[in-house]
Amino acid sequence: MDWDNIRTFLAVARRNQFLAAGQLLRVNQATVARRVAALEAALGSTLFERSTTGVTLTDAGKRLMVHAERVESELLQAEADIRQQDLQLSGTVRIGAPDGFSTYFLVPALRTLAERHPGLIVELVPMPIAASLARREVDIAITIEEPDRARVVAQKLTDYSLGIFGNKAYLKRNGRPKALADLSGHTLIGYAETYAFSSALNYVADLFGNHPTKIQCASAVGQVEAVRHGLGLGVLHHFIATTLDNIEPVLPARRATRGYWLAVHEDVQALGRIRAVTDHIVAETATARRRFLVP
At what angle do helices 29-43 and 3-15 cross, to 10 degrees? Predict the structure, then answer.
């Protein structure tokens, strides 16, 4: 069997769509369909049930998935073994991370890695959920809860704290709250609970108490921009807020603490390019740990 066809089969099985698989493999949908058809012809079995919304594995497809993932794992281990002495690292490393961590910490932290290994291609995607590792949607995941899935190797990166912040001009116009009760007279900005993929994101009550938020954002970057433009008082990460001009803490005694974890699938953790990126993220986070937590 042709490995390209097997690799395409895995991509379709993990993405449940020919189009999405093609985007992952950087080939067009017709090529994906042709490779799957060739594999089905070689095996004499239908591997996917087609529908207007996507595809699902047949019983034959599920059986093949077990063997295909085993072959994939062996090939990845072979690459790790052969490349472990390589000095010039190359290839693509896809990192899924929360947008706040990615935008305000990871992007600037990757500069020295890019200079040291110009052959590396780093892709940053907003996919912090550890399940995406199992589907090979990302190589490295930064999560806000300890991953508990099988075959995932995880380590704690750092704890981080969040507080209430406001734009200086907003505080001048509307006054500075001196107690929790004073928040009732302000526009409050928080995370959109509808889109909270983790209980760790339920930090608004820790900081605002029972006061409702009037502006809700589905991303940390959205919260930052809303506060920065003076829409109201918002919950921000301290490591982000302290880098922004014209932003000041409000009720500094009120804070919430959460954590970041780094997770890698065990099949790829030994690859040189994966190891180089994970080691760099761990080292950069350790160096900057004081930024993540308020004293």
Answer: 110
DSSP structural state of residue 224: H
pLDDT in tens, 93-141: 989 999 999 999 999 999 999 988 888 889 998 765 544 676 777 889 9
Strand partners, 7: none
DSSP type of residue 229:
T
Closest to 203 in 3D by CA, of 185, 223, 184, 187: 223
Determine phi and psi for 51, rounding to 5 degrees. -145, 175
d(CA 162, CA 255): 6
Assigned token pair, 96: 């899924």
CATH of the domain at 98: 3.40.190.10
- Together in a domain, 251 and 264: no
| Residues 146, 122 within the same domain | yes
17's tokens = 């769509």
pTM value surpassing 0.90: no
- What range defines the domain where residue 236 resides? 159-257
